[in-house]
Amino acid sequence: MQKVSVSDSPHVRGKRTTRGIMLDVVIALLPAAVMGCVYFGWKALLVLTISILGSVATEVVWQLCRRQNIREIFRSMDLTSVVTGLLLGMTMSSNVPWYVPLLASVFAIGAVKMLFGGTGKNIVNPAITGRVFAFISFQAVMISGWAAPRIGALGGAVIDMQATPLTNLLDPTKGVGAMGVSNLDLLLGTGVMGCIGETCKIALLIGGVYLVVRKVIDWKWPVLYILVTGLCSVLFNGAQWNLFLPSILSGGLILGAVFMATDYVTSPSSTAGNVVYFIALGVLTALLRKYTKIEVVSFAILLMNLFVPLINTYIRPRVFGAPGIVERCKLRIAARKAAKAEKEGQAQ
Amino acid sequence: MKLKKGKFFNRGVHPKDMKYLSCDAPIERMALPQTVAICLQQHIGKPAECVVAIGDRVKTGQLIGKQSGPISANVYASVSGEVKAIAQYPNPRGGASDYVVIESDGTDETVALAPIDTSDQNAIVERIREAGIVGMGGAGFPTAVKLTPRTPVDTLIVNGAECEPYLTCDYRLMIERTEQVVQGVRLLAKALGVTNIVVGIEANKPKAIELFAAHADIQVVVLKKRYPMGSEKHLIYCCTGRKVKPGKLPADAGCVVQNIATAYAVYEAVVENKPLYERIVTVSGQAIRTPKNLQVRFGTNFRTLLDACGADDEKTAMLIAGGPMMGATILHADYHTRKTDSGLLALDAQSVGVSRPTACINCGKCAQACPMHLLPMRIDFFTLAGDYSEAQKQGGVMNCIECGSCAYVCPANRALLQSISLCKAKLRAMK
Q: pTM for the full model?
C-alpha cells in the first residue's frame, strides 16, 4: 500500500492560495501601470522596474540574512513584495531620480514589512509607508516634480510643475478647470499630471472590477470610501455639488481606495469594523485635503491603519443566533422592570 | 403538503459535492463478514458494559454491551457465532476502546426484540433506547435522550441535507426506502409528542424531495446547496427561521433534529423489532473502482469494505472515515465500522488538500465563511500565542461547530480547525 497522508479535517481544500490572490492583484494593477507608461514614457517604466526589483531584492536579501536556502526563498515567495513594489512605483512621479523608488522600496519592504515579521505581520501598508517615506524625504521631487502626459491637452509640455488637477481643485484661486481639464479627462487621465499609476482612473476601475469578480476584494469598501470622500469634500466646501466628481476623480483616491485601503493585512476583519474604517477614512481624507491642500490619501490610509487593531478589538461580529442590539435592549429593559417590581414587592 | 423554500444563511463554503460517484449505486447488502470487532463505545457518553465472555455463543441481534448510564447506548452482536476476544483496539478519531471480537458461524441466526405497542409514546422512546439507537449522522448522541427534552418542543426536523461531499448513504435511503424512513420519522414525532414534521433536503436531491413531498403530514423544505447546511443550528434556522442562542440546545428553540439514517433505524427497531446492528456506509472516492452504498454489519473491518468496492491502493493518497469535511483521516484500513460511520473514502492525490501552511494575511475569508460568525484568524493567532481566554474573548472559539469551512477557504492553508480544537480542549481543561 502506498503511503497515505493524515491531516486534521477538512481534508479537501479550496484552490485559492496567497500567491494566487497576489497574482490577481498584480494583474489588476497592470492596466493602470501600462497606461502610466503610455502617458509618461520610458521614465515611468524605469521607476516601476526599479521599485519592483528593489522590493523583491530587499525581501530576498533579508531572507538570506536569516540564513534561509535561496531555493526555498523563491519557492515560498508569495508575490506580496511584487505587489508592494508595483504599487509603490505607481504612486511616484515619473520624474523622480532613480534612487527615490529604490530607497523607498528598500524602506517599504525592509523596515515596514520584514522588520515586523514578514508577510501578514506588518501593522501598516508597506507601499503606502514607502510612499510617505519618499514624500517626506524627497519633498522637492515628490510634490513639485510632476511630468506632463504625452497624450492630451498638454501634449508633453509642462507649464506648472507643481500643479496637478487636485492641487488646482484644492486651491481656491484656481479651481479644477484651471488647466483645461474636464471630468472626462480626469477619468481617462489625458492631460492630467500626477503619479504614474493614478491618473488613468478608468484603468484602475477596470482593475478594481477584476478584483471584485475574482472575489479578492469586496466592492462595498472602495465604493464606500470614494463616496464618503466625495460627499465630505462637497459638504466641507459649502455644498458645492460641482466638486463631487472632480474630487473623486483627481488625485490618488481611486488607486488608494481600490488597491491600498483594501489591503488585507491592514484593514479590519469584521464587516462592522470595515464600515467604521472606510467611513473614517473618507472623512479624514476630505478633511486633510481641505486644510493641507495636498494629496493626502496615503497619509489618511497610514493613519487609519494604526487604528485597525483598536477597531478589531472593539468591533466584532455577533455570533450566529446571539441577540441583536434591539433584542438585547429589550431584554435589559425587561430585566430592569422585573428587578423594580421585585423591589416594590419587597417594600410592600 | 406543499414544498417550502428554506431560508438561507449567507456563509459557509461550496466544496465540490462529488456525489455523482456513488449516488446512483443502489444499497447493496454486504456479504456476511468472517469476523467482526464491535466497539463498546460507539456513542457520546459512557462506554457500554460488556455482558458476554470469551467463548460465549451469540446470535445476531443479541445484547453484548449494556447501557451503563443515562448517556450511553446498548450494543448488539452483528453476526452469530463465538466470542473470540475482548480487547482494546484503536479508534479512527484517536484513543482506544474495548472491542468484542466475534467469529461468524455463517448461519446468521437472528434474535429479535419483543414486539411493542406502537401507539404508546413512552414505549417507543423506551424501544429506541433499548435498541441502542444513536445519532447516526456522525455525532452519536443517544437518540432516546434527545427525545426527552427538558423544554417543550413543537417541531421535529429531519436532516436530509447530507451536505458532506461524497456521502450518499442518506440519499439512497431517502429514495429507496422512502416509506420506511417516513414511518420512522412519524414514530420519532410520536415519541416526541409533536405533529409538526419538517424534512430539510438540499436542492441537489430533487428525486428525494419529490418522494417526500408526496406525504401529506410532512413539510418538505428545499434547502440551498451549501456546506454546512446539515449543522443543527443552521438547519433549524433554514427550516423554521428560529435561531438557537449561543450555548443553548436546539430544544430551547422548540426543535429536535434527527438524521435520516436514525429515522430508518427507528423504523427497524419499532416496527421490525430489530436492534441497531447494521447501517448504510458510502464507500467512495477517486481511488475506489466501483463506489457503492453498502449495508454493513457493525464491526466489519474497513479493509473488507474497501476490497468489496475495489480500492486501488496505489492511487489512494488518503483514507477518511466519514466525510471529507468533518471525518477523520486514518493511517491504514484496520479499523472497524461503528454506528456513526457514514462513509469510508479513498481519495487520490489530486483531491487531497494537504499542503504546508504559510503566513496569515488577514484576508478575512475564514470569517466570511464561518457559519457561526466567528473570527477564526484571531482564534488561530491567540491559540498559537498560548492565550486561550483571549481566543474566546476575541474570536468566540467556544461557539465553533467545527465544520471546517474556515480551513477550507484559507488561502494560506492554515490549520485553523486544529487551532480551534486545541483551544477548546485547553479552555475545557482550564474550567
A: 0.88
Question: In sequence order, what are the residues at sequence separation of 6 or more whose Cβ sits closer than 8 angstroms to the Cβ of residue B94?
Answer: B328
Residue of chain A nearest B360, judged by CA positions: A120
Q: List per-block mean pLDDT (blocks of 10 residues) for chain B, which spans 431 residues.
A: 78 89 91 92 90 92 91 92 92 87 91 88 92 88 90 92 92 93 94 92 92 91 90 92 88 92 94 93 93 93 92 88 90 90 90 80 90 92 92 87 92 91 92 78
Question: B387 to chain A, minimum CA–CA distance in Å?
Answer: 15
Secondary structure percentages of chain A, helix, strand, coil, to 5? 65, 0, 35
Cis before residue A10, ω within 30 degrees of 0? yes
Q: What are the strands of the beta sheet with B155-160, ordered from one edge? A: B3-5, B218-223, B196-202, B155-160, B255-259
Do the chains contact at B415 and A8, CB–CB below 8 Å? yes
Q: How many residues does chain A have?
A: 348
CA dihedral A77, A79, A80, A83 (to 10 degrees): 160
Q: ipTM value of the model?
A: 0.85
Of B9, B233, B411, the CB nearest to A17: B411
In whole angstroms, what is the distance from residue B137 CA to residue B181 CA? 15
Cβ separation of B372 and A319 shorter than 8 Å? yes
B165/A4 Cβ within 8 A: no
For B:279-308, CB contacts with A below 8 A are none
Q: Does B209 contact A at CB distance below 8 Å? A: no
What does the alpha-carbon distance between residue B245 and residue A319 come to, in Å, rounded to a whole number?
A: 9
Is A324 an 8 Å CB contact of chain B?
A: no
Residues 123-182 of B with CB under 8 A from A: 165
Q: Which residues contact A172 (CB under 8 A, 6 or more apart)?
A: none
Nearest to B277 by CA among B118, B105, B100, B46: B100
B425–A contact, CB cutoff 8 A: no
> What is the C-alpha separation between B427 and B431, in angstroms, rounded?
7
Q: Which of residues 94-123 of A touch B (CB under 8 A)?
A: 118-121
Backbone φ and ψ of A203, nearest 5°: -65, -40
What 3-state class would DSSP assign to A47?
helix
* Distance (Å, whole) CA A177 – CA B187: 79
Contacts of B223 (CB under 8 A, 6+ apart): B6, B161, B200, B201, B202, B203, B229, B235, B238, B239
For A270, the closest of B320, B375, B418 (CB atoms) is: B375
**Does B331 touch chain A if contact means CB atoms closer than 8 Å?**
yes
- Among residues B4, B2, B6, which one has the least CA distance to residue B225? B6
On whether the CB atoms of residues B143 and B74 are closer than 8 A, the answer is: no
Per the CB < 8 Å rule, is B316 touching A1?
Answer: yes
- Distance, CA of B257 to CA of B188 (rounded, Å): 10
CB within 8 Å: A14 and B409: yes
> Which residues, at least 6 apart from A339, have a Cβ–Cβ distance to it below 8 Å?
none
> How does DSSP classify residue B214?
T
Distances (CA, A) of A332 to A321, A338, B111, B135: 17, 10, 59, 37
Express each pLDDT in A125-144 by its tens digit: 999 999 999 999 998 777 77
